[in-house]
Amino acid sequence: MSRSSAARSATNAATATGDEISPHLVARGVGIQYPSPDAEGGVFTAVDGVDLEVRHGEFVVVVGPSGCGKTTFLHSVAGLIPTTSGELLLSGTPIRGPGPERALVFQQPSLLPWRTVRRNVSYGPDLQGTLGRAELRERVDDLLRLVGLEGFGNRFPSTLSGGMQQRVNLARALAVEPELLLLDEPFAALDAQTRERMQAELLQIWEQLGMTAIFVTHDIKEAVLLADRVLVFTAGPGRVKTWIDVDLPRPRKPEASREEAFHSLEDRIWDELHQTPTP
Questions:
Q1: Same structural domain, 153 and 228
Q2: What is the pLDDT at residue 275?
Q3: Taking Cα atoms as reference points, which of 216, 261, 268, 263 lies closest to residue 242?
Q4: Which of 177, 198, 230 is the last residue of a domain?
Q5: What is the pLDDT of residues 220-248, one digit of tens each?
Q6: For residue 222, is it within any domain?
Q7: DSSP strand E in the chain: where?
Q8: Separation CA 136–CA 165 (nearest Å)
Q9: Which of 52, 85, 105, 129 can pair with 31 through a Cys bridge, CB separation 3.0 to 4.6 Å?
Q10: Residues of the chain whose pLDDT is less than 70?
Q11: What is the H or E stretch that residue 59 is in?
């Protein structure tokens, strides 16, 4: 069992018995600022005073107006952007930089063009150096099957479609067996049919592996389809405006978007996004 599957099993067991269990990710008063390009010595506040908790094994989707800081916050959780104030904790440990317990899937595939699909997927474990050759080959084979790319291991990224490249990107993130999977609008550049197929496959992978996932999107339908809870950010600087529980049954398929309960949740999120933010 992977680390993420074990964590989700422990959470489910604790929930069933009524025991308390600490959240997986905690943000306390997180602020993120940059030097302002408009004024010498000034600062631009991208994220301001974010407090939140994400449970083990939960699928959280973050939505908000363009420029509200949701991607900045996600990259801070990944350890790529330092916080200016407050703290981020993963399983009680402060996040100080990148780590193998977190993996980030970018909007663009960002694959290494000189490496084959197989060698792109094995990139993280190669750097860690913790697996033997046979074990690494087995892990890569399992992941290629999981994302539907069995038989494509010796291809180079330039020979793949956009959807296939993003499957490789996802497999590469999963190769380090992260506890927390971070996804920054990973399907935004795909055509509608490929996007729908990738959403369904991502849900299957998440349900199978049991990891915690945080997914940023502008697409409200995508948010409802994927999420256990939707986190709505205010307009910039990004603050937590509200949480919306998505109490639709799982497993979910794209056909769920035709149901009245699905449309009702879309309307709630749309209303939250278009209300005037509280100062």
A1: no
A2: 78
A3: 268
A4: 177
A5: 999 999 999 999 999 989 999 999 999 99
A6: yes
A7: 25-35, 43-54, 59-63, 85-90, 93-94, 102-105, 180-184, 212-216, 229-233, 240-245
A8: 21
A9: 85
A10: 1-20, 39-41, 276-279
A11: strand 59-63
Asked if residue 198 and residue 69 are part of one domain, the reply reads yes
Phi, psi of 33 (to 5 degrees): -125, 155
158-178 core/surface letters (b: 16 or more CB in 10 A; e: else): eebeebbbbbbbbbbbbbbbb
Residue 106 lies in a domain: no
Distance CA 179, CA 94 (A): 15
Helices 133-146 + 162-174 axis angle, to 10? 140
Instruction: Name 230's bridge partners.
Output: 61, 244
In a domain, 107, yes or no: no
Lateral strand order in the sheet of 25-35 = 43-54, 25-35, 85-90, 93-94
215: in domain: yes
| Domain span at 16 | 3-101+179-274
